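*** Protein under study ***
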Amino acid sequence: MPDGPGLRPDHCLRPRGVLRGAVLTFVFAGVLATAAVTGALPRQEPDTARTAGVTPSRATVDRGALNRAAAEAMADGKSGKQAAEEFVSRSGDRWGAVYGAAEYEEFEQALDGSYTGVGVSARKAGEGRVEISRVHPGGPAARAGLKAGDRLVTVDGRPLGALSVSEVVSLLRGDGVPGSPVALGVERGRSAWTETLRRARLATEDVTVRRLDDGTVLIKVSAFTKGTGERVRDAVRRAPAGAGVLLDLRGNAGGLVAEAAVAASAFLDGGLVATYDVDGEQRAVYAQNGGDTARPVVALIDGGTMSAAELLTGALKDRGRAVTVGSRTFGKGAVQMPSTLPDGSVAELTVGHYRTPAGHGVDGRGITPDLAVSERAEERARTVLSGLGGGS
């Protein structure tokens, strides 16, 4: 996830507002600077959605007890947010998290596809390692010469090895003020150095489209921020007749579930995209009618394909609308509900999990591609697409 937006995990019932329905949250684990975002689900009560989780989390936190713990701490002159964090940590909810009001406000701003950060996306790369997966063109990190594959070791002197992705993102985002400095400890090969950057307000470029030399239309979706789904639909509508689509979801850490559903609508004529439960109540997300159901599609996925991107992958795969090529996806499918605490901070707590149209759980499992390849995945995907009649 980007160090600025949190696309994410997919989201947003505004903490200041009244919950009109459940919030499906798929927490973005990996883009440093990404926060979380939410959005209305088509034909559903929930207005927001965020994704979270890499392994199943079955714990249910007593929200009333959590609020009381925060209120009691405040009455004693202590931090309500810290008390809530300790409560959630003890609860066993592996993907539960507590955000300050300013942090959550930044998450909300990510809905518009912009964020304050240094312009990197990152992911956990093994035990105790955080690696840059993408550098935002023209951003502070790019201007400083940081590259994908560089390892982030510290932020403002604080070691990152034992921190969760959410905590790393919070450090990168800092106070969310453009121009504020942040010192990154970086490693590349055997070299190590400290790079001091100044945060900036950056716009995400989450959908890119280009024609390949064989006539294939490559649609790369980096994250599901506001408007992403419609941009995917436009790209498919404008594709030449008979041209196949290579839908690249590699490294997509998630975003708004509603936008993933709209993207699915580019290839489906209505019908089920995913089911999920909120405190035991079963619900569903549907595609809109009128999608292109004949054009050949191959979806490229990998271990960086998360949350809302997995929701889209599962829908296209289960409904026979796309052949999936690459490696197993991340495995993030926890449904979370944001709850505003007495001090204005926001706790996001796991209340259920989502499933693909065929009923497969994603959280902690991921999605196995139809064709598993570890090298030259795009080349193999183009070969598969050609065999489907989508390339020359």
Residues 207-332+355-387 form a domain with the 2-enoyl-CoA Hydratase; Chain A, domain 1 fold (CATH 3.90.226.10). The two ends are 35 Å apart (CA to CA).
